[in-house]
Amino acid sequence: MRNSRIAGVGHYVPEKVVKNADLEGLMDTSDAWIVERTGIHERRYFEPGKDTTANMGTRAAQLAMERAGVEAKDIDLIIFATLSPDYFFPGPGVLMQRELGLTTTPALDIRNQCSGFVYALSVGDQFIKTGMYNNVLVVGSEIQSSGLDFTTRGRAVSVIFGDGAGAAVLVPEENLEKGILSTHLHAQGEFAEELAATDPSSNKPQRLTHEMIDEGTIYPYMNGSTVFKHAVTRFPEVINEALTQNGLQATDIDLLVPHQANLRITQFIQQKMGLPEEKVMSNIQKYGNTTAASIPIAFSEAFEQGKIKEGDLICLAAFGSGFTWASALIRW
């Protein structure tokens, strides 16, 4: 047996900064309204013609590989998590493979929205544990801004999301007390439509119609109160599940890196778990919710800021559309 270990993390965010005040001219909102409900002050939006879901993932991956001390040719498998692919098909994994200059390296796409990166990490972990692959590149990348309703009708969702990418390189670890100790995945499809973008749809006579655009069904819908209620329950559950399996307690956590869904949710989790503020990584204030990219972006920034050191116990946790939720416990 062997574990997998995160040897390097990296991230990329577009240059365009969109502050709350910039949205005031597009919809009936205000900086105070957004901050009070979400904690977000600004976010990044992609630049058409420059940024794509795949090439943002590539930039994050290149930094992660540099920090891991590996080159693209060393990668055995790419796992790419996103809900905003460049094309309806093929997925962005093969596009990033091409950008990295690789030829036949397998690429797998993961569609688990906000939980996507942790799901992808778990898949990569299994491939390494079985011995099938040695170096696995796990990426989360999103362009949300091109699919939002920038009118008052859509403000509850549109003010939340931003664009960006994050990545991690997984390598084998022979010391079973280090690396990814365990991962935990869950889903509850009965709530699928409570947080969803149901059009364009392949089960309609036409995948995209003018009616879908006019009625706004092409934009994300969120039942905010239902999502909040489930999130504040599932986050602590899945964190405690990881701790219990490994014979640990919340006090053993050195850094919790939650999905950056809403600052109010993060603060609730922090209080519920009894963790001091310095042990919870939060950067939603400047990036918004970047879905599958949010955990690896926060992870990479925590590394850059010196918040992670050898031997630290790190917990990743996510909840989102599906509903899906997941956690990973890591000994750095």
What brief labels describe this structure?
332 residues, alpha/beta, 11 helices
Secondary-structure blueprint:
Blueprint (H helix, E strand, L loop, with lengths): L2 E10 L3 E4 H4 L7 H8 L3 E4 L7 H16 L8 E5 L10 H8 L7 E4 L5 H14 L6 E7 L12 H4 L5 E10 L5 E9 L7 E2 L13 H6 L5 E2 L1 H22 L9 E4 L4 H11 L10 H4 L6 H11 L8 E8 L3 E8 L1
Parallel strand pairs: 4-5, 4-6, 11-12
Antiparallel strand pairs: 1-7, 2-3, 6-7, 8-13, 9-10, 12-13
Helix pairs in contact: 3-4, 8-9
- Determine Rg (CA atoms, Å): 19 Å
Q: Ranges with pLDDT <50 over ≥5 residues?
A: none
Distance between the termini: 18 Å
Nearest-integer average pLDDT: 97
**Beta fraction of the residues?**
15-25%
Q: From the helix content, strand content and strand pairing, which structural class follows?
A: alpha/beta
Fraction of helical residues = 25-40%
Helices and strands, in order, run as EEHHEHEHEHEHEEEHEHEHHHEE
What does the largest sheet look like?
A: 5 strands, mixed
Q: Order of strands in the sheet with the most strands? A: 1-7-6-4-5
Q: How many strand units?
A: 13
Number of helices: 11
